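seq as requested:
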Amino acid sequence: MAGEAIGPHEDEPHGTGLNDRLNWLRAGVLGANDGIVSTAGIVLGVAGATSDRTAILIAGVAGLAAGAMSMAAGEYVSVSTQRDSEEALLAKERRELREDPEDELAELAGLYVDKGLEPDLALEVAKQLTEKDALAAHAEVELGIDPDDLTNPWTAAWASMVSFTLGALLPLLTILLFSQDLRVAVTVASVTAALALTGWASARFGYGPPRAAVVRNVLGGLLAMAVTYGIGQLVGTQVG
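struct tokens:
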């Protein structure tokens, strides 16, 4: 009915903590995808050079450990930098609100006018939001930041490390558990299926088209595996 408040749609993201949830979901999906592709490339490259299961195991475990730590460190540094920037911007906004509240109110009203509100209504909205939470009101409109929902570097780092490890275990275990005649084909098949899943998940969490994400993911993974396996065969032939 007209005039009734409409709640948030169930299929749309809302609420405090959304930024952090999306942050670790992004890190998790990307971490799993990188773990699958990079480890598959390593073990297939070694399998192309030798049939020695021990050599494949050592290379795969080393790649898993190095990749997981690298992903965690990279996410932590990246997200920490983002959080530092957000906190610096919020500190600046707090100072401006404390030192010149009238100009800040006028600025907020002007931003709402730019969004399409009439000047009188924009000023009234700005006043009400400022009375409720001045920093949150300004941070949202001016900076696109929720002061109560800053990105968490530790969450991203752990999500990335754990998901990379889980993703890496798939090609590593697959290539070790099957016989020499089947290991390459089964690994490629399992990795392709996993990449299709992570591609779909990335599109689902990012509200993008799943088909395009799946195709990109699978083709990229197949290319990486083909190149590393070919290099492994070439090096193995030359060394052998």
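The chain has one domain: 18-146+156-234.
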